[in-house]
UniProtKB/TrEMBL annotation:
Alphabetized InterPro entries for the sequence: AhpC/TSA (IPR000866), Thioredoxin-like_sf (IPR036249), Thioredoxin_domain (IPR013766), Thioredoxin_ResA/DsbE_sf (IPR050553)
Domain Thioredoxin: 233-367
Pfam families in the cross-refs: AhpC-TSA
Source organism: Algoriphagus oliviformis
Listed PROSITE patterns: PROKAR_LIPOPROTEIN, THIOREDOXIN_2
Domain of life from the UniProt record: Bacteria
Full protein name: TlpA family protein disulfide reductase
Length: 367
């Protein structure tokens, strides 16, 4: 239920306190967060997958401690509720702890994009409050709490003829100057695409904090990234052969395509840029060059999920799911990742991420 900000001002006047403007309240909330040496909270997220008609719920208990030398000013530790896993970023090193197989994966990531895009970092208020510019929208009553709503437009652009609009909403409780809710809203051509909602509670702010001490359970096997996991393969080397089944149960081997170039599109379902790339490939006027055979390889999702996904998203070439080992063999650590294999089976090109230019270079040239 929407109310008027004047009501807040009236209540403040009646209590003989000078009313603060919404902008002043936001500044005070930001100041309060920045002055704390340690911030602990619970983050509960609802992650929408619009293509599958599904919602994933994710809960984290998070602990952030100031460290001026850290990637964004904080070391942090997060425990995912019910998932048997933890993650930490301490003194420039990332740790991924898996209690199910008793392993700890470490990587020196002083400026890692993985840390930059970590959910613990991206969706926590310490980062969100620093974004500019937030604008006051109005006040709202949620669960008997009066909250002030602010918005920030992160993206308003056109990508390959599609209008992409991404806005963020943050609700702050003026009673304690702490964020309560967050909403990340993505629209394509004015239509809802994906919403991600996050609620915050269990706040604990402290003016002092001991540095994190990395202490993992005894008997856990430590895996050092780069030593036990292959990086992306280099141009010029022989591409690892593989055999997978397509959606019809037919075997597909990379070595069967000698004499032609093969484009390996490593993608997963819950990846917006992967979907955009598929939409480009599926356009009526898009045709691969005569000497290129495209293959879609999914190292993460099952065949059953891919079948459901393909009912909504057209993939105009063979789909190979349950390909976890192939993803590891090719060192795939982000999506989409494209490998172009030449006629002799050697790697000709490696590309990570989406761009219009990359997609067009594999298109058949107009005569």
């Amino acid at each position: 239920m929407k109310t008027r900000y004047s009501q807040i001002a009236l209540l403040a006047l009646l209590s003989c306190a000078k009313p603060q403007s919404p902008e002043e309240i936001f500044a005070e909330a930001k100041k309060k967060m920045k002055e704390a040496e340690r911030v602990q909270l619970r983050m509960d997220m609802v992650w929408e997958n619009p293509e599958m008609g599904e919602f994933e719920t994710i809960g984290y208990s998070a602990d952030f401690r100031k460290n001026p030398e850290a990637f964004f000013g904080y070391d942090f530790h997060g425990k995912r509720v019910g998932a048997g896993s933890e993650s930490a970023y301490v003194q420039g090193v990332e740790y991924q702890i898996n209690h199910r197989d008793s392993t700890v994966r470490t990587e020196d990531v002083l400026d890692s994009s993985m840390v930059q895009h970590s959910m613990l970092r991206t969706f926590n208020p310490l980062v969100l409050l620093e974004k500019e510019p937030w604008s006051y929208l109005g006040d709202t009553s949620i669960q008997e709490k009066q909250l002030l709503e602010y918005s920030w437009v992160e993206m308003d652009t056109v990508i390959d003829g599609r209008e992409v609009y991404l806005e963020n909403h943050l609700w702050i409780n003026p009673a304690n100057l702490l964020p309560a809710f967050y909403s990340r809203r993505l629209f394509h051509d004015g239509k809802r695409n994906q919403f991600i909602e996050c609620s915050y509670d269990g706040w604990k702010l402290e003016d002092s904090a001991e540095p994190f001490v990395v202490d993992f359970p005894k008997g856990y096997l430590t895996k050092v990234a780069g030593n036990t996991e292959s990086p992306l393969l280099k141009v010029g080397i022989q591409a690892p052969d593989f055999e997978l089944e397509d959606g019809h149960g037919n075997p597909v081997r990379l070595s069967d395509y000698r004499g032609k170039k093969v484009l390996l599109d490593f993608s997963i379902i819950n990846c917006g840029w992967c979907k955009i790339a598929l939409e480009q490939f599926a356009k009526p006027d898009y045709e691969f060059a005569d000497d290129i055979v495209p293959l879609y390889i999914n190292p993460s999702d099952s065949k059953e999920r891919m079948e459901k996904y393909q009912l909504k998203i057209k993939i105009p070439f063979p789909v190979l799911a349950d390909a976890e080992q192939v993803g590891k063999d090719y060192g795939v650590n982000g999506f989409p990742t494209f490998y172009l294999i030449d006629e002799t089976g050697k790697i000709e090109e490696v590309t990570q991420g989406y761009s219009d230019e990359t997609i067009l270079q594999w298109k058949k040239k107009s005569e």
